[in-house]
Amino acid sequence: MSANSLPEGAAVWHSLEVDKALDLLDSNADSGLTPQEIQQRLQKYGPNELEEIAGRSTWEILLDQFKNIMLLMLIGVALISGLIDLWGWRTGTLKPGEVPFKDTIAILAIVILNGILGYVQESRAEKALAALKKMTSPLVRVIRDTRLVEIAAKELVPGDVMLLEAGMQIAADGRLIEQSNLQIRESALTGEAEAVNKQASLKLPEETSLGDRLNVVFQGTEVVQGRGKVLVTNTGMTTELGKIAAMLQAVESEPTPLQQRMTQLGNVLVTGSLILVAIVVIGGVIKDGGFKNIQELLEVSLSMAVAVVPEGLPAVITVTLALGTQRMVRQNALIRKLPAVETLGSVTTICSDKTGTLTQNKMVVQSVSTNNKTFRVTGEGYAPTGDFQLDGQKISLEESPEIPALSVACTICNDSVLQKEQGEWAILGDPTEGALLTLAGKAGIEKDQWNSKLPRVAEFPFSSERKRMSVITQVEGVATGEAFSRGIDPAIAGFLQSEPYLMFTKGSPELTLARSTQIHLGNDTGTLTEAQRQQILAENDKMASKGLRVLGFAYKPLVEIPPEGSDETSEQDLVWLGLVGMLDAPRPEVRASVQECRDAGIRPIMITGDHQLTARAIATDLGIAQEGDRLLTGQELQRMTDQELEQNVDLVSIYARVSPEHKLRIVQALQRRGRFVAMTGDGVNDAPALKQADIGIAMGITGTDVSKEASDMVLLDDNFATIVSATKEGRVVYTNIRRFIKYILGSNIGEVLTIAAAPLIGLGGVPLTPLQILWMNLVTDGLPALALAVEPPEPDVMQRPPFSPRESIFARGLGSYMIRIGIIFAIISIALMWWAYQHTHAAGYQGDPETWKTMVFTTLCIAQMGHAIAIRSNNRLTIEMNPFSNIFVLAAVVVTTILQLMLVYVPPLRDFFGTHYLTLEELGVCIGFSALMFVWIEAEKIFLRIMGKKAV
């Protein structure tokens, strides 16, 4: 078969015999490929590398920041202002002492700062693919042209014969030709923590899931022990790792709800501003009967355009999100992308892994069955403290001697170590064996003591074919010649008569029971009847149906150490001890978090690679699913079309035995249903789904670098409860963002209407210069807005459904509030402006006639301080609130007022900002008019309270 006719299919290799796979790839298990074949295949398939699709360059990202409609308008304003100043400079019409181009420079500085701010947020390069590439092995040993050679991994081609040994990272996907005790850790790819025992001789069904393909190996996984010979079947982007890379790059980043709302806000503000500018210019031209005052009208228009754009808003939002990230880190949630802080507040669905996130990632024995009795075992984690309960009542071990006897078997037939580190109990070794040591500890059986009482002299190790292991121990009391009754511990006194050795066996309950002919009852043994056998099998099925992992235990007295390899004959006529059922127990705090999710209108979903019975048991226990809720397996999902999945996705709360592409499909189906999805993941296989999700959440402890780089948030403690805490913080952040947008834009509308009114009511000149407006928008709006951003949460923040991520920024009354307050602001300011103009133009006025403009400027700024104090709560009056519950608002009001007065009373600042000195009488009038803003907002709250309505 030529290189050009090699098979393209990748999913069928596990369903082929080894010889058939070799034939299809025209390869030989002993001699490998010839140099000519290798060259042909390299040309056809290319190097064994992950390919990267080019993204946006740094310059493109930077230039994109200046496509924002509000920044474009400000650039236009700066250019026109510069042209007016240039004309005035050349014609000599500038006012004495006036600095040309200061407005232009100030506006462009703001534009550049906002552009840089956006660039810094967006320019973080996606490093997920780089992390994927690190998982590929640099060198690999292959058989080529009958010789063993070491080559660079990128030179591998389909048909190569690759050799594996312990410690290697696998460089390509392949079909096993032969293996010896080969175990491969595939957790990064499949999410399953335990190493997989590979078997070359198997032929599996085509629909076998990724984690169950025991006759193939995958790129990026690690050989834990043993050795193997592999036929390379897929390289580069056709490997399972390559498919993940392709999916990762195919996922397009959608703008977050906040980004969409800010775009909408910009469009509305700019459109409204241009309409107002047109009205003022056309109205002015009609009023004047021509273009004789066009420069003045242009200056009014420029001031209006600057006033309508909230220049400080991007900075305030960025600081607010940054503060949110700091608070979240203190709760073990690390935010990688700033907008994700607010996005969390919109989450409607949380798709969570089971192991380690909903559970403790610690196997805990839940149930023990001996002597026809089933005991419940209490306790948390690996701590060897807990009780044995029968029918809800605690029992003493003296009443049930079978429990210590079974616990001895759990301890002896065990290769792990239970130890206390820094006050925490931890396991060194296999988690399942760790759970057995914890169980034994609860029964008072300690491994160190029993290793000396029953030292190990031989063993029959576990294998996937036998599904059991046996340990042969020497009975010290007999071996040393001591009196039998004095040398044997009471826990095993009924195990033997005079035999010097004991064999303990653990493994599959069905297989271990099938080799048992007797049963341990109390301190005696008896014949295992068929009725007892059926009862044990029924109890095993009952435990398994609850999602427990069940092990069977037995023992056998021996007169001599059995020869090596005699396991088949030695493991017969066993004495049955009992069943032990264990579970990766749920985290105790997760139940309350799941309930909090439901109270907050958020739907939790479990997506796991684990068995469906285990998944259902955990999900039901935690309240994620109810009895009878639908469960969907990976195989069922595989057979569904995207449309069928979309129809079912709202009905399913548990997904079991899923693969990477399944997770991605589930997220996409939920999103098509309008759901806003947070997805957790830790393996390489999760990266595409994490990137597709509205919020991708990687595990900080167990997560791979690939998953972390693809995520928006990293859980530092891998805990579901942390997601719920972060969601709450996201809601608080969004509420505060809405609060200061109301605050900022209400005043901006007031500014625009005040500026527009000046020429229309016949007052000479523009009341505010662009520089003064920038001061208001950045300082007198910005500082109090930042203080409002840290307003503590309302008590009912997690007692309501999430607000729709697609709702307008003006939704729920925010738009009407801005317009209403803006109009009140304008009425107060225009009334003050009319009075001030008459006052400063009255006969005998001693000051500068232009002082009226400074009075308008000061009134607008100080009125905002009252607005900031009143807007802290939508419903409570200011006098009902503790002024020190947000000390920052009080500080911002004081500091901003002092800064504003400095602009009026410090000569250098007065000259730069074009203000005039105010008398105490004039300042008092400004403060009096400003106070009306505070009075109005408080009066609105009283009115709404009387009407029985709740403010937005």
Largest sheet: 11 strands, mixed
Average residue pLDDT: 86
- Give the end-to-end Cα distance, rounded to a whole number of Å: 73 Å
Radius of gyration: 37 Å
Beta percentage is: 15-25%
In terms of per-residue confidence, which ranges show pLDDT below 50 for 5 or more consecutive residues? 1-6, 478-486
Helical residue percent band: 40-55%
Oligomer: single chain
Give the overall shape, derived from the CA principal axes: elongated
**Total number of helical segments?**
35
Structural class: alpha+beta
Number of strands: 28
Q: Helix and strand layout, with pairings?
A:
Blueprint: H1 18-24, H2 35-45, H3 58-65, H4 69-91, H5 102-122, H6 128-133, E1 139-144, E2 147-152, E3 161-165, E4 173-185, H7 187-190, E5 196-197, E6 216-217, E7 222-234, H8 240-250, H9 257-288, H10 294-308, H11 313-330, E8 333-335, H12 340-343, E9 349-352, E10 359-370, E11 373-377, E12 388-390, E13 393-394, H13 402-412, E14 417-421, E15 424-428, H14 431-442, H15 447-453, E16 456-460, E17 468-474, H16 476-479, H17 484-487, E18 501-507, H18 509-514, E19 516-521, E20 524-527, H19 530-545, E21 549-558, H20 567-570, E22 574-586, H21 590-599, E23 603-607, H22 612-622, E24 630-633, H23 634-639, H24 642-648, E25 652-656, H25 660-672, E26 677-681, H26 687-692, E27 695-699, H27 705-710, E28 713-715, H28 720-760, H29 770-780, H30 782-788, H31 814-840, H32 851-870, H33 887-905, H34 907-913, H35 920-947
